[in-house]
């Protein structure tokens, strides 16, 4: 099991990008369900405020873990991976 945090905040991303990555209260349950359905995700929490969006996850380690989770986040919000990747931070225990 690996624990990680993936997110953006007011220091890493402009407001227009943060607004596009926000999970609204109306979509949060569906988003978490979709995230937990990913094969590598064992459990998770989504934190989404006006200044940051973070995913705290328990995952199974795999070779393309970071790519798969970034792809999920981009697909969910309809974002270009390169645009989002520049503003993301990733913290992982090993």
Describe the structure.
By secondary structure, the chain is of the alpha+beta class. 36% of the residues lie in helices and 30% in strands. The chain contains four helices and four strands; from the N terminus they run βααββααβ. It has helices at residues 15-21, 28-36, 65-77, 81-85; strands spanning 2-9, 41-48, 52-59, 89-92. A hairpin with a 3-residue loop joins β2 (41-48) and β3 (52-59). It is globular, with a radius of gyration of 12 Å. It starts with a strand and ends with a strand. The mean pLDDT is 94.
How is this fold's topology laid out?
Elements: E1 2-9, H1 15-21, H2 28-36, E2 41-48, E3 52-59, H3 65-77, H4 81-85, E4 89-92
Antiparallel strand pairs: 1-3, 1-4, 2-3
CATH-defined fold name: Beta Polymerase, domain 2
Binned, the helix content reads: 25-40%
**From the alpha-carbon coordinates, what is the Rg to the nearest angstrom?**
12 Å
| Contiguous uncertain segments of 5+ residues | none
Measured distance between first and last alpha carbons: 9 Å
Number of domains: 1
Q: Structural class of the secondary structure composition? A: alpha+beta
- Strand line-up in the sheet with most strands: 2-3-1-4
Give the integer mean of the pLDDT values.
94
**Helix count from the secondary structure assignment:** 4
Give the overall silhouette: globular
H/E series, N to C? EHHEEHHE
Q: How many beta-strand segments?
A: 4
CATH architecture field: 2-Layer Sandwich
Largest sheet: 4 strands, antiparallel
CATH superfamily: Glutamyl-tRNA reductase, N-terminal domain
What's the level 1 CATH class?
Answer: Alpha Beta
Task: Work out the strand percent.
Answer: 25-35%
């Amino acid at each position: 099991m690996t624990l990680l945090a993936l997110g953006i905040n007011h220091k890493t991303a402009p407001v227009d990008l943060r607004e596009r990555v926000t999970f609204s209260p109306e979509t949060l349950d569906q988003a978490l369900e979709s995230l937990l359905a990913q094969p590598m995700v064992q459990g998770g929490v989504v934190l989404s405020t006006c200044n940051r969006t973070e995913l705290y996850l328990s995952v199974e380690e795999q070779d393309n873990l970071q790519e798969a989770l970034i792809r999920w986040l981009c697909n969910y919000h309809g974002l270009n991976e390169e645009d989002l990747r520049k503003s993301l931070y990733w913290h992982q225990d090993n």
